[in-house]
Amino acid sequence: MLDANHIKQDFNILDQLVNDEPLVYLDNAATTQKPTVVLEALRSYYETDNANVHRGVHTLAERATSQYEASRQLVADFIKAKSSKEVIFTRGTTTSLNWVARFAEQVLTAGDEVLVSVMEHHANIIPWQQVCQKTGAKLVYAYLKHGQLDMTDLTQKLTSKTKFVSLAHVSNVLGCVNPIKEIAELAHANGAYLVVDGAQSIPHMSIDVGELDCDFFAFSAHKMYGPTGLGILYGKEELLHQMEPIEFGGEMIDFVYEQSATWKGLPWKFEAGTPHIAGVIGLAAAVSYLQDIGMIEVQAHEADLVSYILPKLRAIEGLTLYGPEQPENRAGVIAFNLDGLHPHDLATALDYEGIAVRAGHHCAQPLLSYLNVSATVRASFSLYNTREDCDRLVDAILKAKEFFNGTL
Question: Which residues make Cβ contacts (< 8 Å) with residue 132, sequence separation at least 6?
Answer without folding.
Answer: 108, 114, 138, 139
